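As a warm-up, study this chain.
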Amino acid sequence: MNKFNFQTVSKAIGYDGAVSRAEMLVSTLGGFVGIFFIAWISFHFTGAGGAALIVPSMGASAVLVFAVPHGRLSQPWALFGGQMISAGVGVACYQLFPDRLFLSAGLAVGLAIGAMHILRCIHPPGGATALAAVIGSAQIHELGFTYMLTPVFVNTIIILVVAVVFNSFFPWRRYPISMMRFTDKPSDKHDKSFRYIDKQNIERALSDLDVVVDLSADDLQNIFALALEHAQSPSFDASQILLGHYYTNSKHGAEWSVRRIIDEHQSDDPNKDMVIYRVVEGQGINNSDSCTRTEFTRWVVRELYPAE
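Now compare it with the structure written out below.
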């Protein structure tokens, strides 16, 4: 009998335990904060109660915006567009076939998926929002298309605002992803040390696979570039630490930081070849210090570039 192989089983069932404990804790806290404010604000400012107080699918949206804040399916257009469009589709299907529950339920979810595809706002919880409009309580049915405004629109705006504010406290995972101040991808004005696979080729590959993945072509391009860089140059050399450039330690959670080299004293003697850096993001932000260039290479994992 073959020996039990945990890695083989993990791969087969799609288990991935690569996320740090800090990320798990932040995601857990974020989900609590998001749903707490949806329930509290909905009750106090709309007077909604019972089943109309909160759309259950918002729990799934909270998983995406707090546990996967940089995912393509978590971004604001996916969140807002997916929820609102699905709500409208669900209400329309129920009103067309109020006495044929199975038909209206199937149509609601199916058409919501189709609409999200067409409008490029795939957001899985949207399917639950559409379904809730059909199989929800009489109180939900009585709302008609007002269901799109209260509770769906109100809930969506609340969770969007909470996600932006909450994630802003954690510089390594700001939401939406466009709020990140640094990127792995150099702009045209930087010397491109990475070997990039052309984005058009990545988009063609995704088209050939004909599947939806929660990564953009830019995300995949950066992953490929970093993988190639790590394979070709596992560690930084002192000659790669340059004045004015930005570097990160790639640590998880609160230990993550970005440093910029703001001054240097070059010397052939490694013990006198000094750099002065300022922490510009993450732990110790705005603090400055100095060390030898060799010591800095032991801290750095990769170079970053200011986001445009």
